[in-house]
């Protein structure tokens, strides 16, 4: 399953969650907020350039050296290896904090 398929499945699952939220809460505004939060959450996981962030975090502010591979070869490698995500402790702490806070705020808003 490539990145395109993963993105497609995530968007279909988000659509189902939006419909359920809209029906249960009877609020189009809460469904729209759910859609916005879901799009941001999906984009935060699937869109970042993980090759850039796989470097040591102290080098994130420096330009990434150009590789000898072509862009087409790099894209072909990424298509086959969907999860190049390496669970470094700093990255996991950052993502857990951001997504946990966002999910908490979304839940408090939808359940009110």
From TrEMBL:
Q: Which keywords does this chain's UniProt record carry?
A: Endoplasmic reticulum, Membrane, Transmembrane, Transmembrane helix
The keyword Signal belongs to this UniProt entry's keyword annotation: no
- Give a GO biological-process term: signal peptide processing
Keyword Transport in annotation: no
Q: Which terms in the GO cellular component ontology are assigned?
A: signal peptidase complex
Q: Which domain of life is it from?
A: Eukaryota
Localization of this protein: Endoplasmic reticulum membrane
> Per its UniProt record, what InterPro entries does this chain match?
DTM1, Spc1/SPCS1
What's the main place this protein lives? Answer: endoplasmic reticulum
| Any one Pfam family match given in the protein's UniProt record, by short name | SPC12
Provide the transmembrane region boundaries.
Answer: 12-29, 35-53, 88-107
| Membrane topology label | Multi-pass membrane protein
Q: Which family does it belong to?
A: Belongs to the SPCS1 family.
Instruction: Output this protein's name.
Output: Signal peptidase complex-like protein DTM1
> What species is given as this protein's source?
Zizania palustris (Northern wild rice)
Tell me the classification of the organism that encodes this protein.
Eukaryota, Viridiplantae, Streptophyta, Embryophyta, Tracheophyta
